[in-house]
Amino acid sequence: MTDLVTGFESDTCSSTPMQRVAGRLERALPPGWRVEVVDLPARGEVAAQPVLRVHMPEN
């Protein structure tokens, strides 16, 4: 699995546009929320695109 969890302090630390957007989104969300860039292709898909996954806190 190649999930990447953001936690970027600045956009200059990010290496891809998707990671920069994920970092900005995570900073705009309430505390405890996480944003991941998932670039794992779906089963059988070769040319899949990365997606953002947003995780809510459990409480």
DSSP, total strands: 3
Note the main sheet: 3 strands, antiparallel
| N-to-C order of helices and strands | EHEE
Span of the ends, CA to CA: 26 Å
- Model regions low in confidence, pLDDT < 50 over at least 5 residues: none
Fraction of helical residues: 10-25%
- Whole-number total of structural domains: 1
| Proportion of beta-strand residues | 15-25%
Structural class: alpha+beta
Give the overall silhouette: flat
- In which order are the strands of the major sheet placed? 1-2-3
| Rg | 12 Å
Mean pLDDT: 79
Individual helix count: 1
Describe this structure in words.
The termini are far apart. The chain is flat. The chain has one domain. The protein is 20% helix and 22% strand. By secondary structure, the chain is α+β, with helices and mostly antiparallel strands.
Summarize it.
The protein has 59 residues and is α+β, with helices and mostly antiparallel strands. The chain has one helix spanning 17-28, and strands at 3-5, 34-38, 51-55.
Topology:
Elements: E1 3-5, H1 17-28, E2 34-38, E3 51-55
Antiparallel strand pairs: 1-2, 2-3
Key words describing this protein structure:
alpha+beta, three-stranded antiparallel β-sheet, 59 residues, 22% strand
